[in-house]
Amino acid sequence: MKDRLQDLITGPTPSRQDLTAAALALFEWQREHLPALRAFAGEARPTQLEDIPAVPVSLLRDVPIRHPEAFQVFRTSGTTSGRRGEHWLVDTDLYELSARRWFEHCVPDCPVHCTLSLVPEPARAPDSSLGHMVQQLAPQATWHFDARTGVAPSAWQTLAAAPEPLFLATTAFALADLLDQPGQAQLAPGSVVMVTGGFKGRRTTLDAATLRTRAEARLGSGLRWVGEYGMTELSSQCWDTGAGYRPPPWLHVWTADPATGRPAPEGLLCFVDLANWSSPLAIETEDLGRVCGGTVTLLGRLPQARPRGCSLTAEEARWRR
After folding, report:
1. What is the Cα–Cα distance from 147 to 321, expressed in whole angstroms?
2. Which of 24, 36, 133, 160 allows an S-S link to 65, with CB 3.0 to 4.6 Å?
């Protein structure tokens, strides 16, 4: 099964028919090998992508749906929100393959060889899926963020000393933390700023346009800005380079009416991720959105949904100081 999915990710763009066939085969494999998923799915017999029983992310806070041989776990962000959702994997091979291939497609010529990271470092936060992703994209990254204290003062020194284009990987709240500190840098043309994690925290809401204006005043105006949308429960990510978030061909995105669970023009974002080979491939989020023309537009969160996202860790560090 894993080899078939690897071929799907590395091969030509699959047709809807091929994607559906692969997803249905993976669902049946998972029903056989993941006992908790078998209990969740019951006797469902899906015939299309939207029929595959989607596991709500809220359920994964209470019920770990895992393969018996799974050893790697990623957990949702935050330290004060109670129980954290978990994503268990037998290995990270398809996760890493998926991340690299779609990033390189969407953000070509990114100077990853010179990367400054303001996300959790895997050595200190091995259960951070975002940190794992950044390490895969930029193995030589320098890390300037700590979950307890936030962005390190050394970040501005490294930025100012960069002699060539730089890749700045950050969450929205970590970028705000950086801008709250004294410092100035004129990043070389070709530098890329990746922002992820959302702009709404538990206590603070950031304005995306204002944050970007502040950053350009301190870092330079000739920057490439890219947005990343992903989540702990998925192995694949969507990238926005200016025209909406684009999912990779092996990640099917659709929206469900929150009241009925049926497909709707706008609603809860649902994913069928074929890189989730040893974990639930179908996920129902608490994020609201719209899918049109192959791109995803984010429309906020389900009312009463718990705050979540990689920015929460940075927001908590800011409030502790």
Report:
1. 12
2. 36
| Percentage of the residues of the chain whose pLDDT score is greater than 90 | 84
* Distance (Å) of CA 51 to CA 46, 56, 101: 5, 14, 28
Q: In residues, how long is the chain?
A: 321
Q: Which residues pair with 115 in a beta bridge?
A: 167
The pTM score is 0.92
Q: Is 265 a residue whose pLDDT tops 90?
A: yes
Residue 236: closest CA among 276, 270, 279, 196: 276
Give, in order, the Cα–Cα distances in Å from 301 to each of 71, 98, 173, 257. 31, 26, 18, 13
pLDDT at 318 over 50: no
Q: Which residue has the tokens 């004294």?
A: 182
Where are the alpha helices (H) located in 34-128, listed in sequence order?
A: 35-41, 93-106
* Distance from C-alpha of 226 to C-alpha of 230, rounded to nearest angstrom: 13
Domains of the chain and CATH, by start: 2-84+244-301 (no CATH), 96-231+308-320 (3.40.50)
Nearest to 315 by CA among 65, 20, 81: 81
For helices 2-10 and 93-106, angle between their N-to-C axes, nearest 10 degrees: 10
